[in-house]
Amino acid sequence: MFVDMTADIAHTLHPHRQLLVAFSGGLDSTVLLHQLVLLREQDPSLTLRAVHVHHGLSVHAGDWVAHCRQICQQWQVPLVVHHVTLARGGLGVEAHARAARYQAFQDTLNAGEVLVTAQHQDDQCETLLLALKRGSGPTGLSAMAPSSAFAGSRLLRPLLNETRESLRSGRSPISCRGSKMRVIRMIPMTAISCACG
User: What CA–CA distance (Å, rounded) separates 30 from 24?
Assistant: First the structure.
């Protein structure tokens, strides 16, 4: 049974009312966006926009853009799509992709908006393990905060208390039986392809 996470999310968002949601179209960001849409229904003063970054790393990148557009249209969330070109060099593809993503987020952020991302408990653990592997000191081993400074505004992570499994089963709008969700398209390498009907 689907559990509404909006109260927990609302607590993390307070007092911010203008939200830019990092939206990949994957499970985590779709659950987050859906919860924010539910929250907006309860509080119409909340404004939502989504941003999707097209890295061009996958042959399916165009399908992901179409998928995100379709969901955002269904949920009446304005979507900005950024096409980025990754730098070449020693950092590796993932590091360059992350840097390009966060630059796109910064470029899209309007005055008064905060960036909201779907990082969760499993991401927290992964970040810690990578820091340990790199030999980070105490500062490098600190956990991601639910709220941190970003581009003269804030970066909020309202799903940090959730596990990927909780998003995948039972607490996810995608796995909800009897909900208003319906399949709209399938994209390779993803189990989510839903939008609110």
Answer: 8
d(CA 178, CA 175): 10
CATH architecture of structural domain 6-191: 3-Layer(aba) Sandwich (3.40)
Strand order in the sheet with 153-156: 79-83, 47-54, 18-22, 114-116, 153-156, 147-150
The answer to whether the CB of 108 falls within 8 A of the CB of 80 is yes
In angstroms, rounded to a whole number, what is the distance separating the alpha carbons of residues 144 and 157?
8
Q: Give the pLDDT confidence of 171-193 residue by residue, as tens digits.
A: 444 433 333 433 334 333 333 33
Range 72-103 burial, b when 16+ CB lie within 10 A, else e: beebebebbbbebebeeeeeeeeebbeebbbe
- Residue-wise pLDDT for 31-81, tens only, equals 899 989 999 999 999 999 999 999 888 888 999 999 999 999 999 999 999
